[in-house]
Amino acid sequence: MYTKILVPVDGSETSLQGLRHAILLAKDQKAALRLLHVVHDYLVAEGRHGLVKSGELLKELREHGQAILNEAVASARKQGVAADTETVESPMGPVGAAIAEYAEQWPADLIVIGTHGRRGIRRLVMGSDAEYVVRTTRVPVLLVRGTNLPATD
Fold it and tell me: Quick check: helix, strand or coil at residue 61?
């Protein structure tokens, strides 16, 4: 059913939960697995980088993103699943927009994304990349909730 699965990863526990599910699904479906990291620096985009030069900060963010992708690929390989990687940069817009746009351009059959499951004021203040993706993409989305979340009503 699924032949191309996209998994955004940012190194957080919730994105790793999404990755674990995507690996199992890709193995079961014999699907191609693509791991995506979005380099997003709103501090540089908004000119609040202070004493740090934006070029140095972006270089550090790119390197950190590549390390996250390398670890994610290693996790997939341990489970016998091949994965390729992609990095996109989105300094001005929401991370969710970059994910949704990439998913449609690739084109993915499914996006598997970890979510913090924030509600109420925390969601409003911190935003939700997963929610943005769900609201804006035509690609089916599988949301994987983190393991250390409070019970819902």
Answer: helix
